[in-house]
Amino acid sequence: MPKFCLLVLFLFFCCFDATGSERMTIDGITFKNAKPEADPSPTGDFKTLVIPIKRAGNLIVIEAQIDTLEGNFVLDTGAPYLVLNETYFRDMPHAAEQESAGINGAAENSFTTYVRNFNILDLHYSKLRADVTDLSSIENGRGIKILGLLGTRLFADFAVTVDLFRNTLYIQKLDENGNIPDAEKVFHDRFMVSPFKMLNDVILMKGTVNDNSLWFAFDSAAETSLLDYRRSKKLIPDMEVISRSKIMGIGGTSIEVIYTRFDNLVVGDRKYMKNRILITNLEKMGNAYGYKIDGVLGYDFFVRGIFTINFVKKEFEMYIYNNQ
Amino acid sequence: MKRGAYIVIVFFAMVCMALSASAQKRSNLVMGNDKLTLRIDMRSSKAEVDSLLKKAGLKGASAAAILKGDFSALQKDGWTTAAKRGNIVEFDRPLENLNKNPQSQPYLITTKIDRDDDESPGYPAEVTYGINNFAKVTVHELPSGITRFFLPGYLPNKRALLSGNFNNWSTLKGIMAKTDSGWIADVKLKPGKYEYKFIVDGHWINDRYNNLVADHDNNSIYFRYNYTFKLNGYANARKITLAGSFNSWDANSIIMEKNGGGWQKQLYLHDGTQAYRFLVDGKWITDPANPNKMQGEDGLTNSVLNLGETVVFKLDGYTDAKKVQVAGSFNNWEHGKIPLVKTKTGWAVSLIIPPGNYGYKFIVDDNWMTDPKNPRNMVEGGVVNSYISVKPNYTFKLSGFNNAKSVHLAGSFNNFDEFGYTLAFDGKEWTVNVNLKPGKQLYKFIVDGKWMIDPGNKLYENNQYNSGNSVLWIE
């Protein structure tokens, strides 16, 4: 790239709010505190978009299109933006290399690219930032072809509702107050509401276990809930074990995980009993999120009701099933 | 009754309940104080101990041995005896391993945890036979052989889709066309069992006219037929049923239907060898139109049906041999040796074999040998056999290695066996045909002992050796 262009690029990035701590590398030069250009807002002629969900294990899978390529994507509120599977997208142009402990974690060879013409039914994204990384563990674990993960930034303007009983996803536009317009409301019997924070584009919710306050990431791609071991032993002196298993980590290392049951988890204004949660070490996951987290609320948590994530009001709600 | 006495009774009842509750929980597994504690009640049944061991992740341990007081399996897994109180034996295991090997993403842990159900829901397992059951027929075959799905009504809706395991449960493909009475979609299906649903304006609905419903998700089930049982005559019979090895000789479930001058029943029948009989007004008969018969285990004679591909096994020469047989993994080897018939130039037999990949050998006067005309081999139990694929659905090809001495194919379909299946060189490229199950397959070529990903396939993923595997999806 000619030096002139680099200079222009550098100045271009300097023009942006430089409060973020993100680093990126372009042609070998690392830009500190450089935030990438925000993706243009998506467009679509709808008020409520109804999308059928496919299930693979406890994953929430929907189909989307990149240009003319159709395929499966996992709804992943644990990912900040679009993540593409390296197996099918390794030839995409490299916009920037990710650092090894990048936001998407493990993958050593991940890079950033931009995709054009991404469509979720009638919802159209003209340009989207995407990370390309190895997602083979999801494919091989669940036996389904996965083109990528749909992270939170894709839904930043919307409320997203997941009904796992009828396997339906609703993407809804919001009014000027950030609410779903009354006429468009699908579910009415709300039994829980909780505010959440967006930090590094990951949903963080406060919860309490036995009166101790904890920060949970809400991750729709986590097929079980997770709790950090060191944190758990201070909170819950004795936990009933449901199962102990060993799984294979990257590079063939063995990882021990213990699945337990405990009562008294409070999220928002609701107390949840008989919670299933996997105990493991979350230190590295916290690094990937950019914040120290105590736990991850996954399938075991969100299967308890129809849930709505309002990304504008930063509110998480749960509704009783069979209420249509 | 006095209030005090009442309280005493309630207290007594509560104590009894607490005692019985603790009696039920004699064996358990808890975590706390940086350790796992496993309590085994030696009075427990074998099944109770088995489920406890499963919980504790002790896969190889035998409940019987533990109940006899042999705890070596526990010790091997890092458990130490902590206490013994009466019939309760207590073991501890440190939990520090939980802090090892942190993972950066939840899915790196959660997608690897085995679910109890091995099958993949929505993708039906193979069945020996199947018969449809519609309240009103909504799925049928057109004269062209194409299957038409009909969704009555929903005319005010904007969009209807047909989704099933035949299109990988696509929510974008399978667009149905609107007619004046509902929606239709045509699909080309091979004989077999299918699950499907409709998607109307984004909402999943099952076929309410189809009485066959899967155990999970209320999916509708459809069998694409491939066989018709026919029985001519018996015009005066009141009831005729069909029973066979495919339905465990249930004489009540398959009722023949009157059709012109005889009776018939259409169904889906899996490839393979099936024995069957008709039950005509309570009397068993064989199929008069089928000359292929065999004595059953109950002493009755059965008609025999072979469904599958016809494969001709030929061995040239050996005309002086007394007998030549063929045996393979398709007919249980040693126990299923099948004689070849002498021809002018050698020996031959045609067999009907279900689709799959098999090893086989000829046996010439009790000497086992690979097929001299077949350049492709595989290894079974450490022995090299000739390799054959019946109804293959994929051809692996490798070009640009004209001078290689050997090329082998190893993949998820043959447990990455180092010998795998050998490819043969046809003067242009190396090839081998394989019958593969639908889904993801990983594979590599081994060229003169060197493992490599397929240079002709752009799709590959990393593996634990950091050397990659080629990726192939079979629809």
Uncertain spans of chain A, ≥5 residues at pLDDT below 50?
Answer: 5-21, 27-34, 100-107
N- and C-termini, Cα separation of chain B: 76 Å
**Biggest sheet features of chain A:** 10 strands, mixed
Helix content of chain A: 10-25%
Biggest sheet statistics of chain B: 6 strands, antiparallel
Radius of gyration of chain B (Å): 31 Å
The coarse overall form of chain B would be: globular
Could you state the CATH homologous superfamily of the largest domain in chain A?
Acid Proteases
| Oligomeric state | heterodimer
- pLDDT averaged over residues of chain B: 89
Instruction: State the secondary-structure class of chain A.
Output: mainly beta
The averaged pLDDT of chain A comes out at 83
Total strand count of chain B, please? 40
User: What is the global morphology of chain A?
Assistant: globular
Task: List strands and helices in order, with pairings.
The complex is a heterodimer of chains A (324) and B (475).
Chain A: H1 3-14, E1 24-26, E2 29-31, E3 48-52, E4 54-56, E5 59-66, E6 69-75, E7 82-85, H2 86-89, E8 96-97, E9 111-120, E10 123-133, H3 136-142, E11 148-150, E12 158-163, E13 168-173, E14 190-195, E15 197-199, E16 202-209, E17 212-218, E18 226-228, H4 229-235, E19 239-248, E20 254-262, E21 265-267, E22 270-272, E23 275-280, H5 283-289, E24 295-297, H6 299-302, E25 306-310, E26 315-319
Parallel strand pairs in A: 6-11, 7-10, 17-24, 18-23
Antiparallel strand pairs in A: 1-2, 3-13, 4-5, 5-6, 5-9, 7-11, 8-9, 9-10, 12-13, 12-25, 14-26, 15-16, 16-17, 16-21, 18-24, 19-20, 20-23, 21-22, 25-26
Chain B: H1 3-24, E1 28-32, E2 35-41, H2 46-55, H3 63-67, H4 72-76, E3 80-85, E4 88-94, H5 106-110, E5 129-130, E6 139-141, E7 147-152, E8 160-164, E9 177-178, E10 182-187, E11 192-200, E12 203-205, E13 220-224, E14 227-232, E15 240-244, E16 254-255, E17 257-259, E18 262-269, E19 272-280, E20 283-285, E21 293-295, E22 301-307, E23 309-316, E24 324-328, E25 338-339, E26 341-342, E27 346-353, E28 356-364, E29 367-369, E30 377-380, E31 383-390, E32 394-399, E33 407-411, E34 421-422, E35 424-425, E36 429-434, E37 439-447, E38 450-452, E39 460-461, E40 469-474
Antiparallel strand pairs in B: 1-2, 2-4, 3-4, 5-18, 6-7, 7-10, 8-11, 9-10, 11-12, 11-13, 14-18, 15-16, 15-19, 17-18, 19-20, 19-22, 21-22, 23-27, 24-25, 24-28, 26-27, 28-29, 28-31, 30-31, 32-36, 33-34, 33-37, 35-36, 37-38, 37-40, 39-40
